[in-house]
Amino acid sequence: MALAGHLTLSEAAVEPYGVVLALLAVLGHLFPIYTCLRGGGKGVATAAGAFFALAPLAVWIALGMFGVVFALTRRVSAGSLAAAAALPIAVFGVSGSAMYGGGAAIAAVLIFMRHSSNLRRLWAGTEPPFRLGPPPGR
């Protein structure tokens, strides 16, 4: 994505090209071709890496949101969802680009979709907290 600015693209094409590449990276992580579009990850780290190339300060802001929510809840999924929700706002606020902000919003929606089971457990109060070491009972 950072290379998009160095390609022979018109100035107007650089932003959409970067967003498309970022979203393709996220989609490729969520729905890997080599597993017939099943069994991918949740997309948080991939979205962070992709948008770090477009708006690094915004990703740091979202990472800060992750840290605060994780510290308060001890749940990685809650921190991840908070960071995903903060990313589009931070991207738009930092870059001023509606294109980048919209791309981050699409990534956030995809992340929330992949976290649907975590959301159900968070609402039910059954999402396990983060622990170091082996799970209890072993």
Description of the molecule:
By secondary structure, the chain is mostly helical. It has one domain. 69% of the residues lie in helices and 0% in strands. Helix 1 runs antiparallel to helix 2 (44-54), helix 2 (44-54) runs antiparallel to helix 5 (98-114) and helix 3 (56-73) packs antiparallel against helix 4. The longest helix is centred in the first third of the chain and has 20 residues, at 11-30.
- Name the structural class: mainly alpha
- What oligomeric state is this? single chain
Integer-rounded radius of gyration:
16 Å
Number of domains: 1
Tertiary shape: globular
Distance between the termini: 45 Å
Order of helices and strands: HHHHHH
- The percent range for strand residues is under 5%
User: In percent, how helical is the residue content?
Assistant: 55-70%
Secondary structure tally: strands: 0
**So how many helices?**
6
Low-confidence stretches: none
Largest sheet: none
> Mean of residue pLDDT?
92
